[in-house]
């Protein structure tokens, strides 16, 4: 099963909408709750980063018998140093975003923690691609 979503940048009211819809589809498919939790957390964190840092983007989800693959692609500013960005507490979020309760520097670490496989590619000035894999078996 393939799902596609567009994430609207800077709209915090819709942030997390795609991950919520995927969660509901997985529930209807009878996927184990611990797996649903992993995908919901990892995908939500990636979605929030798209809203906070990249003016939105697109999400493609492929639900296969052995795994769920989520690919999030944006055309934002890119991540200059992925290794640094992966450190807990590191954040480039603005003061305004932090006042809203976001930007604590846990997005990428949480994506890694709740994914079975996480691959991030980014080019400064062109955007970022995040690939999340959750194994079903």
TrEMBL record:
Q: One matching Pfam family, short form? A: HATPase_c
Q: Which UniProt keywords apply?
A: ATP-binding, Nucleotide-binding
Histidine kinase/HSP90-like ATPase domain: which residues? 42-134
Q: What domain of life? A: Bacteria
Mark the transmembrane ranges: none
Q: Which GO terms describe its molecular function?
A: ATP binding
In Swiss-Prot or TrEMBL terms, this protein is called: ATP-binding protein
Q: Which organism is it from?
A: Zhenhengia yiwuensis
